[in-house]
Amino acid sequence: MGVAGRNAVGTVRARPVGEGVAAMQWSEYSTAERLKRLRGAMTQEQLAEAANVSVGVVRKLERGGTASLPSLLSIASALGTDIAVLLGQQAPRRAMDRDERAALRALSAATHDAAIGIPTDTEPGTVEELSGVVRRADAAYWAGRYTELGALLGALLPEARARYDAAEADEREAAAGVLADVFQTAGMAANVWGSRDLAYAALTYGRQIAVQAGDDLRDAHLAATTAWVNLRDGRTAQGFALAAAQADRIEPKMSEHDPDRLSVYGQLVTNAAVAASRGGAAPDTAREYLSQAHAVGARLGAEHARGRHAQPFGPLYAATQAMSIAVALGDTGGALRLRDTIRLDDTVPLATRARYGLDVALTHVECRQWDQAADTLEKVCGMAPGWVRHQMLPGVIISRLAGVSVARLRGLAHAAGVPLAVR
Questions:
Q1: What's the rounded Cα separation, in Å, for the pair 356 and 362?
Q2: What's the chain's average pLDDT?
Q3: What is d(CA 161, CA 104) in angstroms, rounded to the nearest whole number?
Q4: Would you tell me how many other CB atoms lie within 10 Å of the CB of residue 362?
């Protein structure tokens, strides 16, 4: 007897399933129905080939039958999701096309192979050359060019590992830094694609390399990203504890003005504040850490990313997260004041500006300003179409737009890649 079995089916068929559907609703479908919906435009034959199982296994599952655990794991991986989603224990959180699913599978293999140190036949580039490719991958991440990002990481991870393994003593530290940064970007990519286990693994691999190299600041930066994955995973208490502990560990002295250290510290206290505002700690704790973030941003004076890598931190980023925290704490008045004062420029990455736009749209919803909310969401969908499809908030906003026509809601839902329940 296989593992899958058949869940209670019920009669929930009218609404398509996707990013904005609660886990309880998703669990009401049978495994057969979930598999069909996750498969989407893929044929049964294509899924079977991608999962390296027989097409008979796929057909049997979609008829309500069972399959072995290894088969289920392979099918979930081929669909670019977790087995918990396939079995109904967790709702799917994002829309992925076939190219992105393929990129995620390649990223998973490359990440684990690089961690193990599986040899590659490719002659690795120099540390300087690979650093340039890391910056290009980082830029693709922030611009929402995820298929390009997956292709870059799939090639970059084995090369970075090969360069690290072959490095002489005089370049060992620099090679370790490149490899740790690639693992960090891989973790960020896996996180946005909803593959939390892969994100945690990539970031842990990166932290191991950083610790071996004695690079405390890189280790703390990777921890900051891990805390953010905790937030996306609903593990707010763990995210708060990790960010707060790492912030204490690397807190700069008042006389210290190293922008790299200030940037990482600012990211950590900001992540602690966001986690606290979402239930990871008390609201007053969120405000306390946010105050520290503003102070660090003021000391920096401008946006700065440690080693020109990952999230830039500065006064503008601290302001965007103040908006997110106000929304999370239900402080609509504070959110409105921030909306009227924050002016973002190109020093803030596209993904960060888009996330701020979603918080503005949600604030409009809270004020029953339906058209303004729809306008703002439409603008976000236009400026960051690749990024927005992997976010949960658009589905929340669309579901609450009570004063907007169904025709316009359909257009917004299509642009955001979320399902629309016609009311």
A1: 10
A2: 88
A3: 19
A4: 24
SS3 304: strand
Distances (CA, A) of 385 to 44, 70, 112, 395: 29, 35, 30, 14
Q: Quick one: pLDDT at residue 92? A: 65
pLDDT tier, 1 (very low <50, low <70, confident <90, very high otherwise): very low
Helix, strand, coil percentages in the chain from 3-state DSSP, rounded to 5: 70, 0, 30
Write 61-66 long-range contacts (CB < 8 A, 24+). Answer: 61/4, 61/31, 61/32, 61/35, 62/32, 62/35, 62/36, 63/32, 64/6, 64/30, 64/31, 64/32, 65/2, 65/4, 65/32, 66/1, 66/2, 66/3, 66/4, 66/5
pLDDT at 84 over 80: no
Query: Counting Cβ atoms within 10 Å, is residue 46 exposed (0-12), middle (13-18) or buried (19+)?
Result: middle
Percent residues over pLDDT 90 in the chain: 67
The pLDDT value given to residue 300: 96
Entry pTM:
0.79
Q: What is the dihedral of CA 211, 214, 215, 217, to 10 degrees?
A: 80
Closest CA to 111 of 197, 28, 27, 30: 197
Four-CA torsion 400, 405, 407, 412, nearest 10 degrees: -40
The residues that bridge with 313 in the sheet, in sequence order, are 304
What is the spatial distance between Cα 79 and Cα 344, in angstroms, rounded to a whole number? Answer: 37
Cβ-based neighbour number of residue 249 at 10 Å: 13
Distance between CA atoms of 27 and 322, rounded to whole angstroms?
A: 35
Residue 407, pLDDT score: 87
Q: Mind listing the pLDDT tens digit for each residue in 126-136?
A: 999 999 999 99
Mean pLDDT, to the nearest integer, of 27-55? 86
Cα within 13 Å of Cα(320), Cβ side: 24
